[in-house]
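Researcher: Next entry in the queue.
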Amino acid sequence: MPDFLYKARDQEGNLVQGTMIAEGQNEVIEILQRRSLLITSVEQIVVRQKTIKSSFQISQKAMLSRRVKNDDLCIFARQLGTLLNAGVPLLRSLAVLARQISSAPLRDAIDKIKEDIQSGSTLRDALDKHPKVFSKFWVNLVGTGEASGQLPSVLEQIAQYFESSGELQRKVVSALMYPAILMTVCTGAILVFVIKIVPVFAEMFSGFGSELPPITQLVVDLSNILRAVALPVILLLPLIIFLLVRILKTETGRLYFDRFRLSLPIFGTLFRHIAIANFTRGLGTMISSGVPILYALEIVTKTVGNKVVEDALEVVKDSVRDGKSIAEPLEQSGIFPPMVVLMVNVGEETGELSDMLKHVAVFYEERIAMVVDRLSLLLEPFMLVFMGAVVGFLVIAMFLPIFKLATSVKM
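Model: Structure for this entry, 411 residues:
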């Protein structure tokens, strides 16, 4: 049996580390949990390589895009947990759910998972063969649930996590959708007016034989510029979009873009709160399910959705790996507010870190909902007034020469 090097903290927050011989990392985790220790890392000692290889090694690639909606995964987790809690065997539960699920990719994955389990595989290992459907977050929470014998409750926590994150995403999207559509339609209408209609007026004005008012001349000049660059821009637009997408896929591109997002007035605060809510909700869920802190940080770091915050969490991982606290590097990052740092610090000292993180997540989810509601209420009238002012300006600019001509004729 292999040797494992573990690090953990007791109920008083003291560092406990040592080695243990076991059949696998799940057995080590189970033994340490029975000792009421808060696990930070478990690493397998590979003698022939003279190195320590992490038993919880994560792929460096970003999580593969899922073909299955989070809502379907949430329903699957909740229903599977309910069936297992009622005493229905795992294979029977999967067979029942496979017949009820409407998502074809998820149904196909479940059928293959059943075959793997019948061949002697664990549920965790079977899920891990379908990275496009089940993320590392999913897979390793299930593995911890299997090791601790608490799979139904862990599945319920997974369902709650995806419900909370999905609800948050829906609120943000629904609140900002109408202003975005309104702005797109109005901008398109203004561009059509400037490019197509203004030249007609300009040709008519040329017959007046008089100098145009400054604002009219400004609009005519703007129309000429847009007409001149419209075709090149349309032709180059696919290339521009392609280059932007490529740049944003690089580490440097993501860093600069996410830094720009966080610096935006009002919206920067919203993006920061979303990242904090994702981090605290995910980490709290994983720790409460028994996932070692270091491994939980590895996975959650990939889910926050902001490169600036990810880099700050890399420092947190290094601190935990060295047996230090989480709160100190969070404070030094300058990204996490004092309230978050305080709650994490209290959670570490009292051994209630997962509960504290979930409280922080709820607090920020409520703040996000409040900010989004206010933004929605403010953006809609502001954009209507702004677009109305632009349209009014264009109309006045086009009809002002006609009014002046009519006045001069009367005189």
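Model: The CA atoms of residues 43 and 54 lie 5 Å apart.
Researcher: Noted, moving on.
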